[in-house]
């Protein structure tokens, strides 16, 4: 087992589909693979922050299922969005009370989009919660987040698999995408047409970075789930877990990344 390798994991955005990341992390941990650095966009930023703070994947799943996420949302009386993402910050303060990147047990980088300059912005120090909110701020649905003298929206707009902050920092990079689209021969209505087109755009964004990953994990068919389909949380978790187990079985070389877990990590498995 190698304890010296630096392993980076990049987690894509994808709404509630991001719960599948937790299943992937569980499978990797069971195999003795623990990231030394995590990056994430949108849902990947949320899952990454909770995991990097020391919550086990199962604990995060339980929190998501038991927490009424939507009760924290407030209408945005603005032409910039329907809902205010900032009100969700009160929820994150419960589970990330220190609100500080430096207090995370595993280093995290969060990607957001500067809507004025049209550039990706990465956050890895200072205040934690607002960058997470900004990274998850779906344009049109949520009002942009004003932070660090920038107007920020969802990181997935320009970078839905932020592997760049891991380049030169990690010996191996594992990319995880939660938006695989099943083949669809019958587009039923305008809603399904638009949703499918948006996911295709997101996936093009992801696949353009796939070559930067040493290993790429993508549970099949998750694109069929709605962005807010919380009732499917357990199914999404299981799908991520099953696919990661399959990738590990089919690529035994990945076990070279395994290292001896700490006592805390052992207790959580």
What does this structure look like?
The protein is an alpha/beta fold. The protein is 33% helix and 19% strand. It has one domain: Cytosolic phospholipase A2 catalytic domain (3-Layer(aba) Sandwich), CATH 3.40.1090.10. Strands 1, 2, 5, 6, 8, 9, 10 and 11 form an eight-stranded mixed beta sheet that branches. A three-stranded mixed beta sheet has the order 3-4-7, with no helix packed on it. It starts with 6 loop residues before the first strand and ends with a helix. This is NTE family protein. InterPro entries: Acyl_Trfase/lysoPLipase, NTE, PNPLA_dom. One of its GO terms (biological process) is lipid catabolic process. GO terms for molecular function: hydrolase activity.
Q: Which CATH first-tier class would you pick? A: Alpha Beta
CATH fold label: Cytosolic phospholipase A2 catalytic domain
Structural class: alpha/beta
- Domain module tally: 1
CATH architecture verdict: 3-Layer(aba) Sandwich
CATH superfamily: Cytosolic phospholipase A2 catalytic domain
Please tell me what the overall shape is. globular
Q: What integer value in Å does the Rg equal?
A: 17 Å
Instruction: Summarize model confidence as the mean pLDDT.
Output: 89
Percent helix among the residues? 25-40%
Low-pLDDT sequence parts: 262-269
Biggest sheet character:
8 strands, mixed
Give a count of the beta strands, DSSP E runs of length 2 or more: 11
Distance between the termini: 18 Å
What count of helical segments does DSSP give? Answer: 8
Q: Could you state the order of secondary-structure elements as H and E?
A: EHEHHEEHEEHEEEEHEHH
GO biological process, one term: lipid catabolic process
InterPro entries: Acyl_Trfase/lysoPLipase (IPR016035), NTE (IPR050301), PNPLA_dom (IPR002641)
Motif (DGA/G): 154-156
Domain PNPLA: 9-167
């Amino acid at each position: 087992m190698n304890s010296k390798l630096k392993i980076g994991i990049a987690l894509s955005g994808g709404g509630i589909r991001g719960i599948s990341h937790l299943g992937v992390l569980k499978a990797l941990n069971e195999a003795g693979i623990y990231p030394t650095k995590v990056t994430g966009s949108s849902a990947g930023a949320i899952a990454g922050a909770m995991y990097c703070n020391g919550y086990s994947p199962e604990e995060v799943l339980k929190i998501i299922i038991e927490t009424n996420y939507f009760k924290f949302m407030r209408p945005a009386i603005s032409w910039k969005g329907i809902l205010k993402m900032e009100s969700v910050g009160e929820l994150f303060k419960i589970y990330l009370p220190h609100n500080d990147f430096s207090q995370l047990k595993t280093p995290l980088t969060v990607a957001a989009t500067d809507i004025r300059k049209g550039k990706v912005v990465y956050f890895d120090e200072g205040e934690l919660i607002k960058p997470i909110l900004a990274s998850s701020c779906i344009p049109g649905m949520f009002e942009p987040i004003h932070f660090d003298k920038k107007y920020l929206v969802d990181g997935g707009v320009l970078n839905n698999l932020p592997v760049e902050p891991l380049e030169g920092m990690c010996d191996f990079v594992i990319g995880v995408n939660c938006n695989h689209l099943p083949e669809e021969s019958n587009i039923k209505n305008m809603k399904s047409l638009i949703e499918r087109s948006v996911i295709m755009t997101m996936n093009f964004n992801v696949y353009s970075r796939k070559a930067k990953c040493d290993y790429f994990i993508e549970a099949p068919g998750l694109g069929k789930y709605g962005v807010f389909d919380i009732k499917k949380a357990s199914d999404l978790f299981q799908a991520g877990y099953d696919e990661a187990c399959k990738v590990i079985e089919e690529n035994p070389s990945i076990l070279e990344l395994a290292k001896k877990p700490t006592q805390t990590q052992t207790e959580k498995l």
